[in-house]
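# step 3/5: fold
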Amino acid sequence: MSNSRPQAYQRLAELLIGSRISIALRVVAEHQIADLLAAGPKTAEVLSSGTGIPASALRRLMRGLTAIGVFEETAEGRCANTDVSAYMRTDATPSLREMILVLNDDAVLQGWQHLPTVLQSGAPSFAAANGMSFFRYIAADPTRSATMGKFMAGI
């Protein structure tokens, strides 16, 4: 982003792209990319073989997250963890990986898309958007339930 704009303008622009960053973090967390980088920097091609994401697309994703400080790129063009991405590792204590997964779950995001209605009615939107309460949704799937448990234990 150009520094010719006022700081407040730049901050608002950062906030506007926040949901896109959250979705990118979700992809990284789902594919455990921070764990793949735990042993050291790797090329997009090596990460591709561990994630199933095409190397060219993964390179773009990682460069985008590098631009905001989540990862870093070495002089050799390899992707590496930073202090920020280290909190996405499954063995980190505390870890934010599960928070990323829960808060960016499709059903949770659908509930947030109904925020204007919630503000008008005062009624929770998750059930209206997803056909069941949030906690019933979590309990309905063992993987989601385990992820929620780890999320709650980590905060």
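# step 4/5: annotate
The CA atoms of residues 85 and 99 lie 13 Å apart.
# step 5/5: archive (pending)
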